[in-house]
Specification:
The chain is an all-alpha fold and 435 residues long. It has 18 helices and 2 strands. The N and C termini lie far apart (57 Å).
């Protein structure tokens, strides 16, 4: 249908609804998984965790609607779907383990203003972030998430039965189910492989009596999401750490909007679309912090779906955003997800994290294996990933520096890559030195 392949094509709400639902299903698990991982690290009660997951559905829906139909210069006016970003998970887990979840919430809110400003000024700073820097950022995000995925695979950080054969069995079965579904299905159905793995893992967990039903106690059929479920605490180190990650996320959005326009609209994004998309992520992330959630960004899963289906109609994807908002009023959805054993989620997400690394490798290849790019990538990934695995190397640095970089390989890799890109000579100098 030609209307589906036009951003503003005329189509009835009900005819477009199945295609909007498909976009929601493609991102549903990936949207809630970051919250689930951080909530587990923060040792939230089942009620608190379910509440934050419920709010996560609301802000994802609102963010999607904002990107489709902007307010002023905030929003990309592109067929984008937003959700809770994995970029911030590793840093959030590190912060909650020492300072509590309120500090994370404060950093989310304060950092959101940084991304909002970055969006409105994107035309000025974009030239300082070439493709090789974006590629290094994505690669380091994938590496930073591997330990988070492995902890979930074993049953969750701090679990008394961590690494038990029950947890490993659940994780392995969930992983195999994801792989089997991806190999045996065709077309857009492949986008639902993670959801299929979760269902299979959940059913096995029920049979093994490993499902926690405490989230279902006194459960209401319908309830309003709650604003400010946690009191924000503003810590300088956490704010700077998240602000750097917001810069990283802004770079990701540049790549996402470029990919989306290329595969869905056969063109490059305009400056207005690109800056609006970044500003939109910043604005909805501020709102997300007020609802106790992590920052949001555009979802690569949905860009992949656009590439396969060519469905770019804004009204159609808007119906998906409305479905997410409506789902936030049904606590049972959050309760079901919250009752998942960590091992099931670990089995389904471990490969997702690996795919992020491979996406980074592909971006490095697209940037080109020039001697200059190889030097930037090797230096930034070595320092970023290597040094943050040996925290004591920063023992003599100021406490603020340690709180920002000691455990944050994404921020460290990004800063090194930007500095290297600015100070290293051009490719001609590298070639001249070899002759």
């Amino acid at each position: 249908m030609s209307a589906l392949r036009s951003m503003d094509g005329k189509i009835s709400f009900w005819k477009g609804l199945p295609f909007g639902l498909q976009h929601v299903m493609a991102m549903f698990v990936a949207n809630l998984a970051p919250i689930f991982l951080v909530a587990a690290a923060a040792h939230m009660s089942p009620e608190e965790s379910a509440l934050v997951i419920q709010n996560g559905l609301l802000v994802a829906g609102l963010g999607t609607c904002l990107q489709l139909y902007p307010l002023w210069r905030v929003g990309g006016k592109l067929p984008m779907v937003t959700g809770i970003s994995f970029t911030y998970v590793a840093a959030a887990v590190a912060i909650v383990s020492h300072q509590g979840y309120g500090v994370v919430v404060g950093a989310v809110i304060a950092g959101g203003f940084v991304e909002l400003i970055l969006g409105l000024t994107a035309n000025w700073w974009r030239r300082f972030v070439p493709p090789i820097v974006s590629a290094i950022v994505v690669t380091s995000i994938g590496f930073s998430l591997l330990s988070v995925g492995a902890q979930s695979f074993g049953g969750g950080a701090g679990a008394q039965d961590f690494g038990s054969w029950q947890n490993l069995t659940l994780a392995c079965v969930s992983l195999v189910a994801c792989l089997a579904f991806q190999l045996l299905t065709r077309g857009t159905a492949k986008q639902l492989s993670v959801l299929f793995g979760l269902v299979v893992g959940y059913l096995l967990a029920l049979a093994m009596h490993m499902v926690d039903f405490s989230s279902f106690h006194n459960l209401q059929i319908v309830s309003l999401p709650h604003a400010m479920p946690f009191k924000p605490e503003f810590d300088a180190g956490a704010i700077i750490s998240f602000a750097l990650l917001y810069v990283v996320s802004s770079v990701e959005v540049i790549g996402d909007t470029t990919a989306l326009c290329r595969v869905g609209l056969d063109r490059t994004p305009t400056d207005r679309e690109m800056s609006g998309a970044i500003a939109g992520d910043g604005a909805i992330s501020i709102i997300s912090g007020l609802f106790g959630c992590l920052p949001l960004t555009s979802f690569a899963q949905n860009i992949g779906l656009v590439a396969m289906t060519k469905v770019v109609n804004r009204k159609v994807i808007f119906s998906g955003g409305l479905l997410l908002v409506l789902a936030s009023f049904v606590p049972g959805i959050a309760a079901i997800f919250n009752s998942l054993p960590q091992a099931v989620l670990g089995g389904c997400t471990i490969m997702m994290f690996g795919n992020i690394i491979l996406s980074g490798f592909q971006m490095i290849a697209e940037a080109g294996f020039s001697q200059r790019n190889i030097t930037i990538a090797a230096l930034s990934l070595t320092v970023g990933i290597g040094f943050t695995q040996v925290h004591d190397i920063f023992a003599n640095f100021p406490a603020l520096f340690q709180s920002i970089f000691a455990s944050n390989c994404i921020a460290m890799s990004f800063v090194v890559a930007v500095i290297a890109n600015l100070v290293l000579p051009s490719e001609e100098h590298f070639l001249a030195s070899q002759s």
